[in-house]
Amino acid sequence: xxGSRKRNWSSYNLSHTSEKIVAMRILNxxxxxxxxxxxxxxxxxxxxPMDDMIKxxxxxxxxCFSSRHTTPDLAMANALGYLSHVPHxxxxxxxxxxxxxxxxxxxxxxTLAVPLKEAETTFAAxxxxxxxxxxxxxxxxxxxxxxxxxxxxEFKKLHIICGVKTNIVTSAKTTEGHANDSPFLIELMRExxxxxxxxxxxxxAGYLSxxxxxxxxxxxxxxxIKPKKRYVEKAVIEVKNRKKMTAWREMLWFWDRHNKLFRxxxxxxxxxxxxxxxxxxxxxxxxxxxxxxGQYNEMLCKVVCHNLSVLVNSxxxxxxxxxxxxxxxxxx
Length: 332
What we know:
Blueprint: H1 9-17, H2 19-33, H3 50-63, H4 67-79, H5 89-96, H6 99-113, E1 122-132, H7 137-145, E2 155-163, E3 169-176, H8 185-193, E4 200-203, H9 210-218, E5 222-225, H10 229-240, H11 247-257, H12 259-266, H13 270-283, E6 286-287, H14 292-317, H15 324-331
Parallel strand pairs: 1-4, 1-6, 4-5
Antiparallel strand pairs: 1-2, 2-3
Helix pairs in contact: 1-14, 2-3, 2-14, 3-4, 3-5, 3-14, 4-5, 6-14, 6-15, 10-11, 11-12, 13-14
C-alpha cells in the first residue's frame, strides 16, 4: 500500500501467504454479485455461463500462465464450488476475446474498488503501455519513436485513476498506443467521482489544460497538475491585474505562492507509478492475446487482478468488510 502509514507486518505476511485462496473466494462473490443473466433458448448445446468464463479469464491472467497451464487452477476452483465445471483451455481464450465481457470487467474492478471508498480522498491519474506479442514496453517505447504514426501498433495503452493510499484502481480505459493521455482525464475522473469523494486530483504535466483544471474544480476537488514555468508567470501577472480567479489561475497561483505545500500534495502522484509497477511485476508487462479486443480485455483483467490483490491486503491490514451486493449496485 502507498502512503506513510506504518505497516503491520503480521497482517501483511498473513495476507500474502493466503492471498490466492482468499482472492478466489472474493472473485467468486464479486462476480456473482453482478447478477449476470444466463441466456439459453433450449436449442443446441447450452453455452457456458458468462460469470464462469469471467472467473476463468481472471484466474488465467492472475496466474500469468497460458490457458493450458491455467487448467489445474480452474480444476481447484471447480472443487471449491466456484465454477460449475472446468472448460477446455481454448474456450477460455475464445471468451477473453468477447466484446460482451468488456462491460462486465469494468463493473467488476469497480465492484472491487468500492469497499475502499472511505480510505481514499486523494487520487492520481496516468497511463502506461503494454507490449504485444511478448514485446517489452520499454523496447517498444524506443521503437515507436523512430517509426511513422501508421506503424504504432506494437503496444496498447491503459489509462487509470487510482487512490494514493491503497493504490486501488477506481476507473480505467484501454486505447491504442498512440492515444494522448490528457483527453481521458475528465471521463475517468467523473467515473471515479460517482463513487468516491475526490478532494485532490494529481496528474503530471501531460494532463495540463484549462479544461481539465475546470473539470476537477467543478466536482469540488483541488487540481494538482504540474505546471510549466511560462504558464505560471503569465497567471501570476493576470491575478495581480485582478483577472477572474479561475481554477487554472488558482492552481498556478498556488504553485507560485505555496510551492512547498503544492509539491507535498503533488508528490503523492508517484503512487500511480507504483500501481503500474505492481501490475506489471505481478501480472506481466505485456499482453499474451493476439486479437485486439482480447488485448483490451486482458488489460482490464490485469486491473481486476490488481484490485483483487489490494482488497485482500486491505481485508487483513485494515480489517475491511465487503458487501459486494452494495458494491455491485454502485458499479452499475
